[in-house]
Structure formats: C-alpha cells, structure tokens
Amino acid sequence: MAGQGDLKLLGMLESPFVIRVRMALHLKGVSYEYIEQDLSNKGELLLKNNPVHKKVPVLIHNGKPICESLAIVQYVDEVWAATSPSILPANPHERALARFWAAYVDDKFFPAWLGILKAETGEERDKKMSETLPVVEQLETALAQCSNGKAFFSGASVGYLDLAVGCNLLWLDAMRKMFGVVVIDAARTPVLAAWADRFRESDVGKEVLPDADIAVEYAKKIQVYRPASK
After folding, report:
1. Cα dist from 200 to 18, 99, 152, 178, whole Å
2. What's in the keyword line of the UniProt record (predicted)?
3. Domain enclosing residue 202, as ranges
4. Can you give the pLDDT of all 230 residues of the chain as single tens digits?
5. Quick one: CA dihedral 173, 11, 160, 224, positive or negative?
6. Do 154 and 217 reside in the same domain of the chain?
7. CA-to-CA dists, residue 125 to 15, 201, 226, angstroms
8. Whether residue 62 is found in the same domain as residue 168
9. How many domains does the chain have?
10. For residues 107 and 223, what is the distance between their CA atoms, to the nearest angstrom?
C-alpha cells in the first residue's frame, strides 16, 4: 500500500459517504488509519476537524482536514495522481459530466432512497418508492451517457461516478432485505441493474462494500426500521 505522510480517516462503517472515500483510497492503494466515530456522542477529534458540519467522513492528511466525500475523493485523486488508476476522467468534458452526475446522486438519489428507509408505514413506503423510481431512471440515462457502452460509468473500469453511485448499494441491499423493495430493478432499469451486479463483483466492491446485514442491524439500532402500522 502506498502512503504519503500521516493519513487518518474519521468514519462510520455504515455511512455510504465514508464507504465512497474508503473505495477511493483502496483504488489508489493508499494506506491510512481508520478511526470509527460515534455520531450519537461526537468526540473532540471530529468536532475539531469538522466544526462546520460535525459529520463524517473527514480525511486528515498531515494534520490538515478535508471534509465532504466528493471533495475528499477528488483530493485523493490529485494527491496520488502518479498512482494508477486515475479516479476522475482525464477529458475535461467527461470530468465535468461525472461531477454533475455525482452531485445529482447526493442531491436527488440519496434523499430519495433515504425517504423509503425512513417511511413508517407500507403506504408511505410505496409513495416514496414511486417518487424514487424516476430518479433511478435518470441514473440509467447517466450510465448510457457516460459509459460509452462499456461496463462502468467511467468506461472500462471503476471510476469517480461509479464510486459516487456504488457506495449507496449497501443500503439498497439492506432495504431489499428489510422491506422487499427493489430500488434498482432489472425490469425497469436493466442497464443500471447489470452495472450494480458488476460493481458488487469488482475488486473495490468486494473489498470495501460491507455486507448488507451491517446496515440492517444499524437501522434497527437507531429505530429507522419500523413495522408498518396496523
């Protein structure tokens, strides 16, 4: 594993945003110290290094913090630019397109599936699911637009937009186990569903993406998962 100075990652195992950063570090082969955080009892290290949002992930490189997962992924790609593979596309237009869709994932896709997870009744969950499907269909469009017919959003191999979307698969798999809902459905979005299967089987998917049971247990612990009302 490559290394450059003192590198720490403050995170939480179940966070898709932390998973995104861990995937980027894995792609670059960078060694780091991982420090798990309890967000219900935030410690001094987290509050000192992310006083604005007080959230994870936070990457601390030689004592200097970098916050927000997409910014961290770009930082990792730039600092370890000499280490293959490149995470962001080299072409300026493709890079801008990847950033646009990554922002869409965080602004639209993440809140959409989170609404399904937080629904308190089956009826509310169905409503949230119907609102989520058009968002997912846009990701199928993005995949066709960015991949040029290849296996991943970034082309022949996993890259920036793959990490942006793929880090959410943990919770999509967990919701399938908890509620039987299929957010990325092969019948509605077959290209995206095939991508999701490939991503899970990729090196970074196998090595970094946690088992869905971890998310299921966390959801139960914080009482997000509630049985439908009678």
Report:
1. 17, 22, 12, 19
2. Cytoplasm, Transferase
3. 92-221
4. 455 679 999 999 999 999 999 999 999 999 999 999 999 999 999 999 999 999 999 999 999 999 999 999 999 999 999 999 999 999 999 999 999 999 999 999 999 999 999 999 999 999 999 999 999 999 999 999 999 999 999 999 999 999 999 999 999 999 999 999 999 999 999 999 999 999 999 999 999 999 999 999 999 988 755 554 43
5. positive
6. yes
7. 21, 29, 11
8. no
9. 2
10. 24
Residue 195 one-letter amino acid: W
Stretch (H or E) spanning 98: helix 92-104
The domain that holds 185 is classified in CATH as 1.20.1050.10
- Threshold 0.85, pTM exceeds: yes
Please say which residue of 49, 79, 109 terminates a domain. Answer: 79
Task: Please say which residue of 54, 79, 104 terminates a domain.
Answer: 79
Q: What is the token pair recorded at 106?
A: 């965080």
- If asked whether residues 25 and 136 sit together in one domain, one would say no
Assess whether 57 and 115 both reside in one domain. Answer: no
36 and 124 inside one domain: no
Comparing C-alpha atoms, which of 55, 80, 90, 83 is closest to residue 69? 55
